[in-house]
Fold:
Amino acid sequence: MTVEDSRRPSKSRFSSVDLMLILMSFVWGVNFTVVKVALEFFSPLSFNAVRFSVASLLMLGFLRFRERSLKVRKGDLKKFVLLALIGNTFYQILFINGIFRTTAGNSSLILATTPIFVSLFSSVLGTEKVERRVWQSIFLSFLGVSMIVLGSGKPLTLTEQSLMGDLLILAGTICWSVYTVLSKPLLGRYTPLKLTSLTIAMGTPLLVLVSIPSIEAQDWNAIPTQGLLSLAFSACLAIALGYALWYTGVSRIGSARTSLYEYMVTVIAVATAWIFLYESMTLIQIVGAALVFIGLYFSRKSHMEDGLEHAKKT
Structure:
């Protein structure tokens, strides 16, 4: 099997790519609860700085072990730096400050627009064609996420402080969407592991620099084992593993279809909070979760049919 063959989308109904993205969704969904626990002991910026530093070292070491090289083409270096700043530095600063200022309901609904932005940017920039059935799946799943958020019974707020938080989350969502779309051409030349490792490593120094006042003010001796375990989970699994799986999905099934798994993150986040934080789950939320899975099913079904049609033509 050639490298090109290995990157062709799977024609099966349920492939290894789906399994990887479901694992990513599970890790990211659980990570909401983990971060909530961690921020009881860490300040937001010091937490981000440490977890990205740990993730960077871990991924660079694994990349060196796996591929024996950290080099990229000279002409691509600026693109890597741009992706690092957009998808790691700027996104993380906007996200962590936004979620601090707004409610979980507001932030969940805003983050759920990621697949819409990814599809819009993909279409406008011409990085990939987004078919009608993918758009239908996006909006069906978005409807499901809206039902999950609104069905919680917690009101969406628009106070002055939450509005600023909402705008920061929206800006972060746009950054992540641009990061995803612009990465697609580079994934034709580099493995998901190399692209993920290098962009995280390049984006971390500025993130740490911005966080220096918070790092100095942090009482490191007061952090219990629970806080350290939360940090390890978030750094090793949510960032190092999660980002690598995300880029693997983008390289195999495209930006638009991969971004649909963001909806599953919300479902898992709500379910995790229900189990571990004893938050309630209503019938409306259960119906909303079902719509999310239906949307994902139709997206992957259309992807399979497109692959079979292409096979017949060739």
Q: What stands out?
A: The chain has one domain: 14-313. Residues 1-12, 307-314 have pLDDT under 50 and may be disordered. Residues 43 and 79 are 31 Å apart (CA to CA). The longest helix spans residues 283-313.
